[in-house]
Write a structure and sequence with these properties.
- By secondary structure, the chain is of the alpha/beta class.
- The protein has a single domain (3-236), classed as Alanine racemase (TIM Barrel, Alpha-Beta Barrel).
- 42% of the residues lie in helices and 17% in strands.
- Helix 4 (97-103) links the parallel strand 3 and strand 4.
Length: 242
Amino acid sequence: MSGADDVSTRLAALRARVAAAAERAAHPAQQVTLVGVAKSHGAARVVEAVAAGLADVAESFAQEAREKLPAVAAALRARGLAPPRWHFVGRLQRNKARDVVALFDCVESLDREALARELDRRAAELGRAPFEVLIQVNLSGEAQKGGVAPDQVPGLLAACVGLAHLRVVGLMTVPARPERPEASRPAFAALRALRDRLCTAPGGDTLRELSMGMSDDFEVAVEEGATRVRVGTALFGARVRA
């Protein structure tokens, strides 16, 4: 099986699993976006996935994206294919904000007011308004993970209300790595409940997205109301190590 056929087969299988999980929970499958996390995979692999029908691709590192995204765009143009929607899902330093706003369609890892203000400023400069972001919530309390504590989310959301070039459209989380998929369910349910509580808070009326679930547990996330699942290894295969 060629690399392109491999990605196409994996993508079809993942979509079937998303649809089955959505059916179990009586959620419309078309409301769940499958985001392929291409961190450490080359441009050619991303092009294969987009050619197979993947519409959303994520990256975690701004430096890697600066080289990869233009290469993907050029290869897709040569094949007459439209580019994917690009998601930034990694921890973001303020000095990389301009690059990320220029390259990506949304940031899913907003975790502090200073970063929100910088993204807003760069979006205004580059005419990318309104630039979409999700607030990353650290539900596990793990210091090595990005995100804000649940009780800090309302304050960050309220601080974003006055930023004219930024729009908070949802919440994202990366739970503790599960030993089994079912172990992630409480975290996913907690994120959904937090989103539901925030809907009446300042800025909460635009919170339509729940980005949660990865290769190990995305089906449980869909059952708990995920609107985006971020799948890397299950789509692209094992990460390429330098």
